[in-house]
Amino acid sequence: MTGGKDRLVELLQRAGLEMVGDGRTEEVLPPSAAWRPGIVGNAEPTVAVRGDRPDLVAEINAQWHRLAAASGVIGEDGGFLIDVAGYGMGCPPGRWTRVRLTSEWDLAGVLGERSGRPEFVTLSTDGNTLLGATSEEYEVWLIAVDRVKERHEAAAQQAAREMTPQETADAWASLLGGLRPSERLCEMWAHGLALNPAIPDDLRADLLGRSHFLMWRSLPTAVVEAAMVHPDRKLRQLLAEVQPNITAEHWTRLILGEQESRHRWMLTMLAADRHAELTDTAYERLATDPSAHVREETARLRGLPVRMLTALAADVDPSVRASACRRAWPHLDSTARLALLGDPYGKVRIEALLHYHQDHPMPLSVFDAEELKDRAVQTCRLERGLAERLARHIDPAQRRALASNPHLDPDLFLLLAQDPDKRVRFEASKRPDLTEEQRADISIDFDPRIHYYPLDWVMELHDDHNAMRRLAVSSHPLVRRSVARARRLPPDVVELLARDEDRVVQLFLAESCDDAPADMLLRVWQWWTGSLSTPDRPHGHPNFPRHDLLRYANDPNPRMRQLALDDPESTAELVERFSRDSNKEVRHRAATDPRLTAASAVRLLDDPHEHIRHAAAQHPKLPARVLVRLLRDNDTAQTAAQHPALPVPVMEQMLRRPQASTSATPAP
Asked: What angle is formed at CA 352 by the lines to CA 347 and CA 357, rounded to 5 degrees?
């Protein structure tokens, strides 16, 4: 996209145009709507300039400027909007660029395939007057259109008029009528249908190999079975990587069905990464696989029986022994442990030493000899002399690693709590063995804008209500944030955290805690516009207010205003009003409301903002004639193919098509 933007900037500069404004989306019709027949009528030229004129470029420029000035395309400040054909991947896709003429400008000579063959459209900054330049066979046309908003409204009303059953049937029949879909259009259809919740299972199976989007949603067992035997190995690998609905039996057949060891290795690694359970047959086969890479990943499988895990700890391959050692150590006898501690390969010895010194203090001689570095500093028991040396190490990274060591003597972690390096102090402040008084004495720099992971030791105490009461009053924001991640909390803790000065504590309470109070959820809704791991919270929280929301219909805060449509007493008239709101999020909320009229849904298909256009394209009242238009356009086909009201025979048409053309999709 950056390359396209740079090209557009360079082109506009050559044309003598100065880019102005902050680059935000203009609140006018998008460029894609500028030349739609419903906007420009019968597309008769306002001025036609013959292509054989000797002064062609100068005449086109003069006529464009005369019309632009007379019609108001050029504003009082000299600004106007422009979109150049072939530069739709500009700054950014689907947006106008606000510009001004410089002292030496030449639109007709630069903004086209060659000089004197311009292809661009300009629009007044209020979005109501359009002036385009297009090159015909023997002439260059300048087409001026006034009352753009009125024309657009009328076009939406006309497109949304009620259809008879026969008209609807004819519209669907016209989808492929006279159209040989391009490869690009067929690809967009496949991606859209893969995301369509209404597509039948047999058609989902037809999408295998056509859209990778299919794999990310939980698929019916029959489709998973079809994917498992698909000839495309990459498709089978994607199935293993992302598909939620894979059973232990599926994993077994998927992995053991691969003849090449490299492919078995990849699938076994994915199974280990996803903590998948396999069958006993799979564990037996994989633990004795000829490939050391496969056995190495097998040692990571969560359900691997102990007897196989300990056998792998004595494998002939050192990488397998090292991998198995991490989980097998507690189950090994003294002889097996001594063998690993004395292993001739360093990576095996290191794994063994890291586990051995969980229980036995590590001396300086071992630490220096094996170069154990950060893992040992963070996790192992250390002899007092080694721990003292590391606590005063010149490298702050070593002191920071030591600060999280759970076996550290109290005087040493209190020493690190006063370290001159702020990162060391912060690490020490997170320790579970500090009293809250000790924690409060540590000077830390806490940036509320930085993402911090919750503290594991606090998460493990979530079911201990007394611990939650104690930690909820901690001076450390990260401790309180971790408490707020609990699913259930005592009422007094909820009340305290709901008023926490750290807004992220309230945010986490809204996301995670089923006891979050309604008034706090409403407060969080007012300022939180990001995404959460729990979908649609705080708005989707069961305690979120659902009544007495009409009072926000005229609220100056658009976040609050859109809540009025959630009130059971809200009306279709309010939906229509919100569909014309100045705020994009309020319009988006209206675009998702089933009470929106068909005409307004069609109108919002040309909203300046893509997420509103996407919502409008999914609206249940969109007539077939409009959906067909969207399906025949490369830019909107994927979104339209997700519409849940697409008839199944139409979906079949889109998938069981004639051989696709490689040519561009013709305009509808």
From this structure: 130
